[in-house]
Amino acid sequence: MAAAAATIHGAVPAAERRSFWTGTPEIYFAKAIDNSRLVKVEDPRRSREMKHFCTAMAFLFLLVFTYAWQHFKAIEYGYQIESAKRELANASEMNRALRLEDASLRDPERIDVLARRMGLVPPEPGQVIRMEGSGTEAQGPVMASNAPVVVVAQ
To answer: Which of 28, 49, 120, 137 is the most exposed place for a label (fewest CB within 10 A)?
Structure first.
């Protein structure tokens, strides 16, 4: 028999050879299983483990959420601080520009030139009369005093 098989193997090329054995056919049978009478027994150990696990996960979630909230608040506060710094720089620049403009507008030479263009002339002696209180105002700030007030009835 081996000689016949050797003769067949030698006569037919390997590419044309087919296997006659296809293996065991797989057959599936559907069987209805009725589990309606089964009752699930509650395992107290497993229940306790699940409670511990859920508590740990809730705590972990709370920690992560708190960290994320603090992180995003820190970023938001950083943006607010930078915005406030920008506003401060803009206000300081505007203040500097306004002080410069105020100083240029108060320049006595400029005022004198504008007055002469409008036809004004310097006052002649005796034309300017200084009031009593005006001398102290020009010197600087004056402290309030508690002087007695005299009321004259008519």
So the answer is: 28
- Whether 99 maps to a domain, the answer reads yes
pLDDT confidence tier of residue 37, bands split at 50, 70 and 90: confident
Q: 77: which 2 tokens?
A: 């506060």
Span 21-31, average pLDDT: 77
Percent of the chain predicted with pLDDT > 70:
77
Q: How many residues does the chain have?
A: 154
Q: Is the CA virtual torsion 82, 88, 92, 95 positive or negative?
A: positive
Q: Within a domain: residue 91?
A: yes
Number of domains in the chain: 1
What tokens appear for 115 in the block?
A: 């007055």
Q: Is 145 a member of any domain?
A: no
Three-state DSSP string of 39-73:
CCCCCHHHHHHHHHHHHHHHHHHHHHHHHHHHHHH
φ/ψ bin of 148: left (φ > 0), alpha (ψ from -120 to 50), beta (otherwise): beta
CA atoms 91, 92, 97, 98: torsion sign: positive
pTM, two decimals, is: 0.45
